[in-house]
C-alpha cells in the first residue's frame, strides 16, 4: 500500500504497468481523471474509489489548490517497475518498496501541472486572438457584401446607417469577451469545453433579439441576424476545440 500526494495543480501520468491490479481511494481533496486524447474526465471527491487498469485514463490531476491524496492498494505478489522522473541507481519495484516500508509515499509537485496549464492558457489566448481577427474580417466582408446588394443597415432609432467600422468594432469586442469567458472556464471549470458551449450558445441566441426588435426593414433585420451568426460560427467551435486540445 502506498500514498500518492498531488499538490495543487499537479499532474501525474498513469502507466498501465504501475496500476495493474491497483485500487485507489481518494482520502483528501479532489482528483480529476485525464482521459486518452487529453479530454478531462470526472472529478473524484473524498472516499471515492477507482480502478485505472484498462480504462484509458492517462493521468491524474489535482484541479484545485488544496493538496489531494490517494491511497493505493496493490497486491503484494504483484511486481511492477516504478519509473520515476528522478535518477535512481537502479530500477525498483513496488514489491521492494512495500517490503521496506508498510506505507510508502509518492509526492507530485505542481510544476508539471502548472506548466501544462500555462501552455494551454497561452495556446487558448493565441487561438482566440487569431479567431477574433478572422471573425472580425468575415463579419465586415459579409456586411460589405450585404451593402453591395442593396441592404442599407439603417436603424430607425438614429436614422443613420451602421458603418462597416461599426460591425468590425462590435464583432471584435464581443469576440474578445468570448475569449475571456473561455480563459475563465479553463482556469476554474473541470469541463471547460462543454461549459463554454453551454454558455456561448444561449448568449448567441440572446444576441439575435435586438435585430428582431430594432424596427429596421426586413432586409436589414435578416442581414443583421446573419451578421450575428457569422462571428459565432467562427468563435464558438474554435474556442471549444482549443479547450479540448491536448497540449502536453
Automatic annotation (TrEMBL):
Q: Where are the transmembrane segments?
A: 124-146, 166-186, 193-213, 219-240
Q: Which domain of life is it from?
A: Bacteria
Keywords in alphabetical order: Membrane, Transmembrane, Transmembrane helix
What is the protein named?
Uncharacterized protein
What is the species listed in this Swiss-Prot or TrEMBL entry? Actinomadura citrea
